[in-house]
Amino acid sequence: MQLRKVTAASAAVLALALTATACGSDDKDDSAGSGGGKKITIGIKIDQPGIGLKTPDGKYTGFDVDVATYVAKELGYDAKNIEFKETKSADRETAIERGDVKFIAASYSINDERLQKVDFAGPYLLAHQDILVRADDSTIKSPEDLNNKKLCSVTGSTSAKNVKEKLAPKAQLQEYGGYSECLTGLENKVIDALTTDDSILAGYASQDAHKGKFKLAGFKMTNENYGIGLKKGDADLKKKINDALTKMVSDGSWEKAVKANFGPAGYKNEAAPKIGNVVK
Questions:
Q1: For residues 71-89, b (16+ Cβ closer than 10 Å) or e, as one string?
Q2: Closest Cα partner for 110 from 29, 202, 228?
Q3: Average pLDDT over residues 211-237
Q4: Contact 202, 267 (CB under 8 A)
Q5: Residues ≥6 apart with Cβ < 8 Å to 81
Q6: pLDDT over 90 at 23, yes or no
Q7: β 47-48/52-54 pair status
Q8: Is 237 within 8 Å of 96 (Cβ atoms)?
Q9: CA 252 – CA 40 distance, rounded (Å)
């Protein structure tokens, strides 16, 4: 009888141990940042210079990367424990909903449609739709001057559509596969202007190969509030990220990151937005 009691007790202890192990076995991300060496997966762009770029040697650079790294550190993760994952624009909500990433910092504009599916911390940058022209161009002084000009953007771009429908209906829209192709066309005078978010344009213009060749027009045609996307209803993580962003602004790290990634293009950035203040 005594042996049976001991055996039963041992079995119970073993069962509890197995249960605890099973519960923790698939915990890929540790949002509490316990410092146990677990990875955190963050979604970024990897093909936007100045925003999010994966260099040939495997490093990640850009303003969004700097913001994501700072936030992760405030959540308790060392840089070595961050796993960056490419998230294309069309895949961002799905990646969050599936749990592929803990959060996303990828030129991710806050809007009502996206808020139906995910939550946002921030905003951490107020960008605007703008155009990029050659540095010696003096003919385009307003959006209306794009009429009868060759305007480039990527295929299916909402930026180009906005200009064509609302600002310069006679613009000759040229749609290329990528912004790099538009830049080549702009440099070679095949096109007259390139349009998308000013932060993205500044990132391309700041590359060593392009310095001094292009300039931003500064038209501020739309407001783009970049936020950090996270799972719908995760109020705890949202607060922690907002606290981290607030600290990044207050300690000067935000301004430093802006100048490092956009400065060479003469990007006149807006002041750091207040957390929760989405500019319409």
A1: bbbbbbbeeebbebeebee
A2: 228
A3: 95
A4: yes
A5: 37, 38, 39, 40, 72
A6: no
A7: antiparallel
A8: no
A9: 25
- DSSP H or E stretch at residue 276: none
Cα(first)–Cα(last) distance of the chain, in Å? Answer: 75
CA distances from 113 to 12, 116, 128 (A): 50, 6, 19
Q: State how far the Cα of 60 lies from the Cα of 44, in Å rounded to an integer.
A: 9
Q: What are the start-end ranges of the H helices in the chain? A: 2-24, 63-74, 92-98, 112-115, 158-162, 179-187, 198-205, 235-250, 253-262
Specify the higher pLDDT residue, 31 or 261.
Answer: 261
What's at 128, amino acid-wise?
H
Higher model confidence: residue 268 or residue 202?
A: 202
Query: Where are the extended beta strands (E) located within 88-223?
Result: 103-104, 118-127, 129-134, 150-154, 172-176, 193-197, 214-216
Task: Identify any residues that bridge with 214 across adjacent strands, giving them in sequence order.
Answer: 134
* Angle of helix 198-205 versus helix 179-187 axis, rounded to 10: 60
Q: Which position has the higher pLDDT, 205 or 5?
A: 205
Q: pLDDT, tens digit, for every residue of 27-61?
A: 455 544 444 568 999 999 998 999 999 999 999 99
> Which two structure tokens, joined as six digits, stand for 222?
């739309």
**CA nearest 155: which of 174, 171, 175?**
175
Cα 188 from Cα 36, distance rounded (Å): 53
Three-class DSSP labels, 51-90:
CEEECCCCCEECHHHHHHHHHHHHCCCCHHHEEEEECCHH
Judge whether residue 121 has pLDDT over 90: yes
Q: What is the pLDDT of residue 110?
A: 94
